[in-house]
Amino acid sequence: MTETALTKRKDRPTNGMMKILTIIGLFAACLAQTACVNVTAPDKPIVINLNISVTQEVVYRLDGQAKSLIQSQPGIF
Length: 77
Hints:
With 77 residues, the protein is an all-alpha fold. It has two helices and no strands. The N and C termini lie far apart (118 Å).
């Protein structure tokens, strides 16, 4: 039987080299199977409904003299 480069003990790849080659092969196979992602604009415009209710509460204090003036003359303002 004729010996080739792969059958000679010194020319065989080591276990570490085989692991690296296997990992590289698996990585290349995974890269070949990646999917393409297409992003397109929608046909209709995007509508955002913001139903916002804003309420404001004003708290005020009047000194006694201003309060009595407003009560005595309600049309002052």
